[in-house]
Design brief:
Blueprint lengths: L6 H19 L6 H8 L3 H7 L3 H21 L7 H10 L6 H17 L6 H24 L8 H21 L6 H14 L2
Length: about 190
């Protein structure tokens, strides 16, 4: 009897292999051969699922987005509006190993999108989702009455820059920008909006 293969699970396994190769060796070393080996497949099998690198990267990054969305959908938000917002924003930051792998893949993807036009629409979409989360945060705090009179547009941009900056620096300097530091800086910023 032939083996039944769950193609979606196989694609996820390949995408996770991409993240692992990026983590260990960087995007430039993310070759078909290395990804296939990491995923336990032949190069031909990998090409069956993803005929080119752009399609593989796009799928890998959509998987990051989907996992973040699932984590957020499964969260139980309790506490003050600021505490709930912080828990939401922490899902976008490398505060644990899973999110660190996702964030490394995201930044590698972002850099690659500068030279690969096929990746740009997804990069723009993902940036808009992060921006939307920051906008939701500021608007939620404003509606709750917890926010003093401020320029909401400026506060959204400031929070968006902070989230991106924390993510980047946590990847570049993990010994300095730890999960505790991310939490502390984010808490302090949200407290300025109260």
């Amino acid at each position: 009897m032939p083996k039944i293969v769950d193609h979606e699970k196989q694609k996820e396994k390949i995408a996770e292999a991409v993240w692992n190769v990026i983590h260990r060796e960087g995007l430039e070393q993310c070759t078909v051969r290395k990804i296939a080996k990491e995923a336990g497949l032949s190069a031909g099998s990998l090409r069956h699922y993803f005929p080119n690198q752009s399609e593989l990267l796009i799928y890998s990054m959509k998987l990051v987005t989907n996992r973040v969305k699932v984590r957020i959908e499964n969260m139980r938000f309790t506490g003050t509006p600021a505490e709930c917002i912080k828990q939401l924003l922490l899902q976008l930051l490398p505060a644990d190993e899973e999110r660190r792998l996702e964030m490394e893949a995201w930044f590698s993807f972002t850099a690659k999108s500068l030279s690969d036009p096929a990746l740009r629409p997804l990069r723009k979409e993902m940036n808009e989702e992060i921006y939307s989360a920051c906008k939701l945060a500021v608007e939620t705090l404003s509606r709750s009455g917890a926010m003093p009179e401020m320029d909401a547009g400026e506060e959204i941009e400031r929070l968006y820059a902070l989230v991106d900056g924390l993510a980047l620096h946590a990847l570049l300097e993990p010994e300095r920008i730890t999960a505790d530091k991310i939490d502390s800086v984010l808490t302090r910023q949200l407290n300025t909006l109260k």
